[in-house]
Structures are given as C-alpha cells and as structure tokens.
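Extended Data, panel c. Modelled sequence:
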Amino acid sequence: MGCYELSLGVWHRDSLQRYRGPTLPDTIVLTGAPAISDGNTWGYTRTPQLLGHELKPQIFHHWRHEITPAWQVSNDTVRLEWTDGFSGVSLYFTPGDAGLVGRVEVRHDIIITERQADGTERVVPWPSADVHVRHVPCHDDAAA
C-alpha cells in the first residue's frame, strides 16, 4: 500500500492500432480499502463484486467511471486495473533486480484484425509499454 510513481517507457503501438487510451497519472495510490463494484453499471444491475483494493486516481472521465479502479496481488505480481467496462488499462509489476518493473497495456472492446498474405487473420496487439514503479511518500491530497 502507499504511493507509487510510474515511469513509462516507449509505447509499442502497431501501425494499425489507433486506440490511445486514457492518460496515466504520474503517481498512483494503492489503498487498503476494498474496491467493490456498485452493481449498477451503464444501467445494468448486477450483484456487487469485490474487485480487490481501491486504486487512485480514477483515470476515466466522470461520465465513464462507474467501475472502481482496483489492485490486487497474486504471488509476487501486483496487478492494477482501470476500466469503464468497454475499455481499460492493465498494469502489472513485480520486484526485480532493477526495482519494481512491469508492463502496461491499454485495450478496448473493438478487436482489430489484419488479413495476412497466407489468408489467416492476425489480431493487432494492444498498445503497451514497459513501466518502472517506485515507492514515494504520499502527499496529503493523494491519500484522500
């Protein structure tokens, strides 16, 4: 838990992939509060679910942030997830020799494919970048 600074590497983006995704913040806050879906997203009612722990800040516009950003740990990997139900950002990091390192990927609900010369379809990969994560002191406004 606490505050972490994100340093993104170069984005790897296929020339056919036009989706840019939301802008990531420079600093994130991993809280201990439970991240629970409210059960009402885009007018559909469903059973509320525990998504993990709350992640701040929200990166989607106010009219698209009905799903609480969340983080969770599995083995030695920390997984962060921002989504509006149609598009999202996944960030994974693990401890390594160079500190906390991982990858970020942005996605949306439209899958782009390309027909290859041999007639097969290739799924165009989502934009992604390497990320370094560094623990930093929290400021009063970040912890709120």
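DSSP finds one helix and twelve strands in the chain. This feature is highlighted in the accompanying rendering.
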